[in-house]
Amino acid sequence: MALSASQLNVGDSYSEQIVDDLTRTQIVQYAGASGDYNPVHTDEKFVTEVAGYPTVFAHGMLTMGMTGRMVTNYVGDGRLTYYGVRFTSQVWPGDTLTAKAEVADIRDEDGQKLVDLTITTTNQDDRPVLTGQATARLDD
Amino acid sequence: MAVERFPVEASHILMFARSIGDTNPIYSDPEYAAGTEVGSIIAPPTFAQSSAQFDPDYFLRPKPDKKWFGSGRTASGTLVRDLSEADGNDVKDEREDDKQSGSAAGGLHAEQHFTYHRHLKPGDVLHTVTYDGERWEKQSKRAGILKFSEAVTEYRDEDDELVITAKGVGVVTEKVIDN
């Protein structure tokens, strides 16, 4: 279901818990689907002994993908014209993430109503792990 | 970094959607999708990134004829010596990936942006063109000198129409960041 410009206001927001207790297996699953087999995400021995991290960590793109689910659930399927993020902190196994979209602007471009969203995904300690923006087409 | 042929397939979309925990039937059920505004299965917004599967030289996929930097007999297949024999900091990693830009190569993924001209669907056959964008440096208290590099990838269809423009920013840090 798409959003209507007439029913939307700047400051409106929508949020979802996008993962509860992220598992190493889901990170492996994302590696397989995306094709990004960087061992920092899946290989405990490599990541602790060679790369020097405490354990494996999620692909930024997994967090962006899970956050994208919240965005498309809000704006509707096939409605995005832009989605961009910055990865602000690492995501670790065991993390629980909540993604939030807030309406920053509702505008008109060549007769098409658009919404600009500000996106923030935070972990269980309220630390932002991803910040970004999205733009989607609205119904009138 | 160019991908000559990226066929968008329903089973790949299904696997990708599962991996991000998205059970929306628009990614898996053709009958449901036929009754929606988009009219067919589409791909999730970040799916284009999995074009890496179709890049024959993609450096973050192990290849049968090449040493892989993940663990096997030793903690890294490309380490000069086994870490268990190492007595100091003289262990070198022979990775050659630090020439890559705009990606997580030898560093971390800092930003990713997608501009959608339309959404991907099964049956699309895309090709990509990647070019380097800006490069810059920043000083950080937590990680030392940060070196950023940008890469722009255009995803085009068989009519050479632009479907998605992607911009990735990679960062190489001086020190390990573990929060």
Compile the SSE list and pairings.
The complex is a heterodimer of chains A (140) and B (179).
Chain A: E1 13-19, H1 24-34, H2 44-49, H3 60-75, E2 80-87, E3 97-109, E4 112-122, E5 128-137
Antiparallel strand pairs in A: 1-3, 2-5, 3-4, 4-5
Chain B: E1 6-7, H1 10-19, H2 30-34, E2 108-116, E3 125-140, E4 144-156, E5 162-173
Antiparallel strand pairs in B: 1-3, 2-5, 3-4, 4-5
Going by CATH, the architecture of chain B would be Roll
Mean pLDDT of chain B comes to 86
Number of helices of chain A: 3
Coarse structural class of chain A: alpha+beta
CATH superfamily of chain B: Hotdog Thioesterase
In percent terms, what proportion of residues of chain B is strand?
25-35%
**Overall pLDDT of chain A, averaged?**
97
Number of helices of chain B: 2
What is the helical fraction of chain B, as a range of percent?
under 10%
Tally of domains of chain A = 1
Q: Going across the major beta sheet of chain B, what is the strand order?
A: 1-3-4-5-2
Rg for CA atoms of chain A? 17 Å
Cα Rg of chain B = 19 Å
Terminal residue distance of chain B = 31 Å
Q: Segments of chain A where pLDDT lies below 50 for 5+ residues?
A: none
In the CATH scheme, the class of chain A would be: Alpha Beta
Taking pLDDT < 50 over at least 5 consecutive residues as the criterion, the unreliable ranges of chain B are 81-105
Succession of helices and strands of chain A: EHHHEEEE
